[in-house]
Amino acid sequence: MGNVERCDKTLPLNEMIFHVRRDAALRERWLADFEGLAREFGLSRAEFDAVQAKDPKRLMDLGVHQYYVPQILRLFFGAAQNSNASAALECYKRAYPAETAEAMALQARLEQR
Amino acid sequence: MAEIVAAMAMTHSPGLTGWFDRASEEYQQLALNATAEMRRRLEAARPDTLVMFSNDHLLNWPINNIPEYTVGIGDEHVGPADWFDEWLGMEKYRVPGDPDLARFLVNEAARHGLSLAYLREMQFDDGISVPTHYLNPDARFRLVPVTMNCNVPPIPTPARAYAVGRVLADALRAYPAPARIAVVATGGLSHEPGGPRYFWVDEAFDRWFLDLLKAGDHERLLRECTLERMEAAGSGGTAELLSWILVLAMTQGPADVLAYMPAIAWRSGTGMVVWNELARPEGRNP
Fold first, then answer.
1. Could you tell me which chain B residue has the CA closest to the CA of A3?
2. Burial profile A35-45: b = 16 or more Cβ within 10 angstroms, e = fewer
3. What is the 3-class SS of A51-78, one letter each residue?
4. Could you give the CA distance from residue B148 to residue B56 in angstroms, rounded to a whole number?
5. Which residues in chain A are closer than 8 Å to B203, comparing Cβ atoms?
6. Taking the CA atoms of chain A, what radius of gyration do you get in angstroms?
7. Rounded to whole angstroms, what are the CA distances from B238 to A88, B175, B187, B188?
8. Closest B-chain CA to A22
9. Strand B251-263 to B76-79 pairing
10. From CA A39, how far away is CA A61, in angstroms rounded?
């Protein structure tokens, strides 16, 4: 089945993002005290490192739900006027060069039609 | 007894409000015209309440406990959630709820073996906020939001969504008040939010799916549009079309496809559809 089937429903990071997104104080701590926050939610070293690396592929390989990956990037980069030009795109280009290049080429073709 | 007076569906991609002008002017015009037509038809149908079927993007329930369906039963609904207002480029909106209808729906569904979770205070992401912006901007219609799971395994099948749509249609009609109800599906078309193909859409799938709605052959749609096929056209996002299939079960005959745009800039295949006929309570189709 699809990519979403790869998520680990029991991964601490998947629980953590749910709470962080809904709580302004936790969102501040994400930037100010990620280490403390990670400890409280019981993140593994691998989860901690993948978040710091802002690497979509590593995050998904660990079992982070795919929908939460751009949300993690938004916690770092902010949300306003997000678009294909955003920092998130750069992270995906690095993590999934073939898929992202194909998508960008498709978008260029569609826009010229 | 209540009556279902209109059925329609639209994409809820965040770009439709958050970064509308990043898509071509042609797409912008198509989207504006199609949503204006949806609004015109809604107003002509004079509903009291919109029952909006969308999906929860892991916002209302933690991943350790994801219900298949959730009904918002509050007196009033306020959105977007704080985490989403900047992303969606929207001011906060307030829409009156319809708690009597919403609470009836939860209990009536239970009497028919269908478990609906409920929330008195629901948070809203693009799924409810974007269609509300376009279809109910002045909050003239009351809102009953219903979200479904379509992205945390196990994902329900199209056949299940269709069967649930049948039960909910009966439950809505059984509401013992002369309420006029419009049903609105939100989500889709092809996209893969956050997955390896995050910046991609599957135009061929989208046009094929919309053609099936235009043909109005429910049996064929359920036979051919499998969950596997939806997942192949964008994992965890294209299956938002389960809400369209749920609403399809409340209709009969061909749908009007008002617009389609393979709008990668907005983050999903983007479409707007209105059904012309509601399913008759007894004369069950197909």
1. B235
2. eebbeebebee
3. HHHCCHHHHHHHCCCCCHHHHHHHHHHC
4. 6
5. 110
6. 15
7. 21, 32, 8, 5
8. B83
9. unpaired
10. 21
> Residue B285: is its pLDDT beyond 80?
no
Q: pLDDT at residue B221 above 70?
A: yes
Instruction: Give phi and psi for B100, each to the nearest 5.
Output: -65, -50
Residue (of B210, B264, B268, B11) closest to A113 by Cα position: B264
Q: How far is the CA of B120 from the CAs of A58, A97, B54, B72, B126, in angstroms?
A: 37, 44, 17, 6, 19
What CA–CA distance (Å, rounded) separates B221 from A4? Answer: 23
- Global confidence as pTM: 0.96
Four-point Cα dihedral B13, B55, B283, B272, nearest 10 = 0
ipTM above 0.90, yes or no: yes
Q: Enumerate residues 6+ apart whose C-beta is below 8 A from A45.
A: none
Partners of B89 on chain A (C-beta within 8 Å) are: 80-81
Q: Copy the structure tokens of residue A29.
A: 């701590």
User: In a mutagenesis test of the B interface, which of A15, A21, A62 is the best target, namely the one with the most B β-carbons within 10 Å?
Assistant: A21
- Look at residue B281 and tell me whether its pLDDT is greater than 90: no
Are the CB atoms for B136 and B15 separated by under 8 Å?
no
Structure tokens at B177: 């008040």
Residue B62 to residue A18, Cβ atoms within 8 A: yes
Q: What is the mean pLDDT of chain B?
A: 96
- Residues of chain A with Cβ-Cβ distance to B241 below 8 Å are none
Q: Which of A75, A64, A72, A66 is nearest to A12 (CA)?
A: A64
Residue A86 forms contact with B (CB below 8 Å): no
Could you read off the pLDDT tens digit of each residue along chain A, which spans 113 residues? 689 999 999 999 999 999 999 999 999 999 999 999 999 999 999 999 999 999 999 999 999 999 999 999 999 988 766 655 678 889 999 999 999 999 999 999 988 88
Residue of B56, B50, B227 whose CA lies nearest to B142: B50
User: CA A31 from chain center: how many Å?
Assistant: 15
Contacts of B114 (CB under 8 A, 6+ apart): B69, B164, B167, B168
Q: Which amino acid is at B200?
A: W
User: Quick one: residue B15, left, alpha or beta (phi over 0 = left, psi -120 to 50 = alpha)?
Assistant: alpha
